[in-house]
Amino acid sequence: MTIHPQLDIPETIAAGPGPGNTDARVLARFAGAGLADHMHPAVLRGMVECKEMLRTVMGTKNIHTFGVAGTGWSGLDVMFSAVMPGDTVVMFVNGTFSGIDGLTVRMKAATADELAANPMDPQPASVTIVNVPHGQSVTGEIVEKALAEHKPKWAAMAHWETGSGRVNDIKGFSDACEEHGAMGLVDAVSSLGVEDFRIDDYPGVHGWASCPQKGICCLPLTYAPVSFTDRYIAELKNTGTRTFVHHPVMEARHWGIIDGKDAPAGTYHRAHSAYAVAAFHEALRITLQQTVAQRAKDYTFHEAALREAVTAMGCEVTSNMTSLIVLNLPYDMAGREMELVQYCRAQNFGIWPTLSEPVQVRIGILNLLSQQAIEDIVARFGKAMRDLGAEFNQAAVDAALDRHYGRAIAAE
What is the Cα–Cα distance from 232 to 315, expressed in whole angstroms? Predict the structure, then answer.
C-alpha cells in the first residue's frame, strides 16, 4: 500500500478566465465554520440568507433564486433540465462554452432514438445551432432572424462567452424572445458579479445560471447561482424533468422555497456542506458591501490598463469582456501560444490558451482589481515574452501603465 505525502499546493496567481483568486475572507469562513450537519438550524438559516442576498446581487424578484451545489456546470445543468426530448430550441454558439451549452441542449432535447444514434454527440431535429464565428459577438439581429424563422419553445445563449472573450447582446436576445414567444435561457457564468445588470430588466429570459468561482469570488465547489421565473417553473411542473439531484423545484425546497413561496427553513433534499454555505454566504456579503456597480467600474478601469500594456508589447486584443482579455501574440511570436502559456504556468502564473481554434492567449483579472495586481501581471507576462525571445519597448509599456493610473490619481 502506498500512502503519498501530504499534498502541498503553491500560491498561484490565477490570471485566467476562472476560477479567480478567492477572497481571503471567504477562505477564512470556509475553514472557520463549525462542524455541523446540513440540517443544523444555523446552516438552514445561512441558506435562507444566501437566497435573499443572491436576489439582490442578481437584481430579481424571482422566488426561485438559489444556489446549486457544485460549479457553474451544475447550475447550467439545473437550468437546462427543463428542456425535454423533442423540445424545439435555438442555441447561439460563439465559443467553447456556449458550444458545450449547445451539446447539453442537444443531449436533453434528443429523443430516445436520436440519443441512441449518437450518444456522445446527438443531432436532434428539434435543435437549431446558430454558429457565430470565433471572436465575434452574438447580436440582436442574429437572434431576431433565427427566432423569427424557427419559432422555438426555448432559446439559449451565453451572456459573456469566455472561450473567445466576447460579450453578447443580452437586450437584443431578450427582446427577440419576447417578440417570438420563446423562453430565453442564459449562461451568465462569466458576467454575474462583473457587469452591472439586473436580470429582471430582461423579461424575455426565464432561466439564468452562473457559477460561484468568477464574479462572486467564492470557491469553485460551493454554490452556482440560478434564478427562474414563475413561467419557467410552471412549464417545468407541466412537463416534469428526468433528474432528481438537479430538479429546480426539488432543489429549491432545501433553500426554503416551497410551493412557490418563501418558507422559514428548507426541507431535506440532499446533503449540503456547512463549510460551503459559510463561504458562499461571506462571498455574497462582500459582493453587496462592495456593490456590483462599483465592481463593474473597477473591472472596466483595470482591464483597460492591462489592455493598453499588452498592446504596447505588440499584442492584438480581440475581446471586449472586462474581466478577461484575449489576445494574439506579436507576429514574431505567432504559433508559440501554448509554449508561452505553459512557460508562465510553470512559474505559478496561471494564464490560459483558448480551448478552440484559433489558439490565442487569455489573461484574466478576476478579483485582481488593484494597480499592484495589474502591474504584477504585466511584469510577469512581459518577462515571459522576453524569456522566449520577444522584443518590445519596455518603456512604452511602463508609460502606458503610468498614463492610465496617473490619470486616475489626477482625477482624484
Answer: 44
Q: How far apart are CA 257 and CA 254, in angstroms?
A: 7
> Using CA atoms, how far apart are residues 350 and 348, in angstroms rounded to an integer?
6
- Taking phi over 0 as left and psi of -120 to 50 as alpha, with beta for the rest, 33 belongs to beta
Q: What are the C-alpha distances in Å from 377 to residues 24, 103, 209, 310, 368? A: 19, 34, 30, 10, 9
Cell numbers that stand for 115 in this block: 440519443
Cell numbers 433553500 correspond to 255
Over the stretch 91-139, which tens digit does the pLDDT of each residue have?
999 999 999 999 999 999 999 999 999 999 999 999 999 999 988 999 9
Residue pair 254/267 in contact (Cβ under 8 Å)? The answer is: yes
Q: Please tell me the distance from the alpha carbon of residue 68 to that of residue 54, in angstroms, as a whole number.
A: 12
Q: How far is Cα 410 from Cα 394, in angstroms, rounded to an integer?
A: 24
CA distance 31 to 35: 10
CA distance 231 to 219: 31
Report yes or no: 234 and 362 within 8 Å, Cβ to Cβ: no
Question: What whole-number distance in Å separates Cα of residue 66 and Cα of residue 53?
Answer: 10
pTM of the prediction? 0.94
User: Which residue in 395, 398, 393 sits closest to 330, CA to CA?
Assistant: 393
- The label of the residue with cell 427553513 reads 265
Q: Rounded distance, CA 284 to CA 261, Å? A: 22
pLDDT 10s digits, 158-171: 999 999 999 999 99
CB 278 within 8 A of CB 29: yes
Q: Is 183 within 8 Å of 207 (Cβ atoms)?
A: yes
* CA dihedral for 185, 189, 190, 195, sign (positive or negative): positive
